[in-house]
């Protein structure tokens, strides 16, 4: 299935690239100058080739070079996408003008109009990409308040910090995670929850220890807990290096199991249904056996799915990630249609859902249309 998806995407990428080349060549007036033809070809190649080259050589190059290639390829892919969308919009306006005639003839027929439009397109694309790169490196804290009409023993309040979708790997390295430690240190949460996609895929030798050396510095009186996401391939095996390293640092990975927090409330962590090669996801109803539902119930689930099942089970607060809120506009329009809630707080009776758009990035190291975040939740219980 993944191979089919990649093939379809690369085919679409090729069609978009051809469209950009054709419109760019037309904008230059199909010059006869050999220098201009070579220059156009070189710029075009630098625009469209980095992404497929990065994808094909990811596992063949040294880690440092692969990281830079992944970043370069991600930037170029988004530039191709935005160039295609902007040029398509311009062509739609031109087509509409054939009937409505709202563009003055002196503008439409001026010989420099194609070059001016081309310059505007380049400025818009570069501006979006530069902003997206800066935005991806500057996470924020988003705060929520949730009131649960249940007693939690002597606990009146609980401060949770939730981090999802770090995607540690070629782009998000240990250096990029230092700001995460600083943010968590300033928040001083009682409980830290890692809501999946801690890694960007299978880690090379030694990378698990590098990741855990950072995560092991997180401090929270009530503990640090995690669930696997669909990218966390190294969390399939309970005896794998990453699992053993996390457990050694006191970070519990909850794969379809629950724990009691301070004997006052329950935390239920679910396995991800798309973690291929791992055990099948257990029904929430089965996980709830033996749990006192009179106590507050927290659910940590990478994907914001099966909401009706969680609500019916009496879950008070579900924390999820996965969506990235599309990460790159206009993909947020798609995630908004796929998920009942792709970012923020959803409340249904006593059930609350908070979805994070994530801390890191997948694919292009850019965020356009949303901010990377750490989620801070203040829970208040019945006195």
Would you kindly provide a written description of the structure presented here, covering whatever features stand out?
- The chain contains 12 helices and 12 strands.
- It is 42% helix and 16% strand.
- The chain has 2 domains: 2-135, no CATH class; 141-381, Metallo-dependent phosphatases (Purple Acid Phosphatase, chain A, domain 2, 4-Layer Sandwich).
- Strand 10 and strand 11 (351-355) form a beta hairpin.
- The chain has helices at 2-27, 34-48, 50-57, 63-100, 105-108, 113-136, 178-187, 207-215, 241-248, 284-287, 307-312, 332-338, and strands at residues 140-148, 157-163, 191-194, 224-226, 251-253, 257-261, 265-269, 297-300, 317-320, 344-348, 351-355, 373-381.
- Helix 8 (207-215) runs parallel beside helix 9.
- It is of the alpha/beta class.
- A 6-stranded mixed sheet has the order 1-12-2-3-4-5. Strands 6-7-8-9-11-10 form a 6-stranded mixed sheet.
- The radius of gyration is 24 Å and the shape is elongated.
SS summary, helix count: 12
Report the end-to-end length measured between terminal Cα atoms.
Answer: 51 Å
CATH topology of the largest domain: Purple Acid Phosphatase, chain A, domain 2
SS-based class: alpha/beta
Strand order, largest beta sheet = 1-12-2-3-4-5
User: Helix-strand pattern, N to C?
Assistant: HHHHHHEEHEHEHEEEHEHEHEEE
Keywords: Membrane, Transmembrane, Transmembrane helix
Organism: Planifilum fimeticola
Protein name: Calcineurin-like phosphoesterase domain-containing protein
GO molecular function, one term: hydrolase activity
């Amino acid at each position: 299935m993944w191979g089919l998806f990649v093939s379809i995407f690369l085919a679409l990428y090729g069609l978009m690239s051809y469209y950009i080349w054709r419109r760019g060549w037309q904008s230059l007036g199909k010059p006869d100058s050999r220098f201009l033809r070579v220059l156009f070809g070189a710029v075009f190649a630098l625009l469209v080739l980095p992404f497929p080259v990065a994808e094909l050589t990811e596992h063949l190059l040294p880690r440092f070079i692969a990281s830079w290639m992944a970043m370069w390829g991600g930037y170029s892919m988004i530039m191709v996408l935005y160039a295609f969308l902007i040029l398509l919009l311009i062509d739609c306006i031109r087509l509409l003008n054939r009937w409505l005639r709202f563009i003055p003839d002196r503008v439409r027929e001026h010989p420099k109009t194609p070059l001016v439009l081309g310059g505007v397109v380049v400025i818009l694309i570069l501006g979006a990409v530069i902003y997206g790169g800066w935005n991806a490196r500057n996470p924020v804290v988003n705060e929520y308040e949730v009131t649960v009409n249940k007693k939690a023993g002597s606990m009146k309040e609980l401060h949770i910090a939730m981090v999802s979708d770090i995607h540690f790997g070629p782009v998000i390295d240990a250096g990029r995670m230092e700001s995460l430690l600083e943010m968590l240190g300033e928040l001083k949460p009682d409980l830290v929850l890692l809501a999946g996609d801690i890694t960007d895929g299978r880690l090379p030798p030694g990378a698990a220890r590098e990741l855990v050396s950072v995560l092991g510095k997180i401090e929270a009186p009530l503990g640090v807990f995690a669930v696997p996401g669909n990218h966390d391939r190294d969390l399939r095996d309970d005896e794998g290096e990453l699992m053993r390293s996390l457990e050694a640092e006191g970070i519990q990975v909850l794969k379809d199991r629950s724990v009691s927090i301070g004997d006052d409330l329950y935390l239920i962590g679910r396995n991800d249904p798309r973690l291929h090669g791992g055990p099948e996801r257990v029904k929430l109803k089965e996980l709830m056996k033996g749990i006192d539902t009179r106590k507050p119930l927290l659910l940590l689930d990478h994907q914001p799915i099966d909401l009706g099942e969680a609500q019916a089970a009496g879950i008070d607060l579900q924390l999820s990630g996965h969506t990235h809120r599309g990460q790159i506009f206009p993909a947020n329009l798609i995630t908004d249609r796929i998920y009942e809630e792709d970012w923020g707080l959803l409340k249904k009776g006593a059930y609350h859902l908070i979805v994070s758009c994530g801390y890191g990035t997948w694919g292009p190291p850019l965020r356009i249309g949303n901010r990377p975040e750490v989620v801070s939740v203040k829970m208040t219980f019945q006195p």
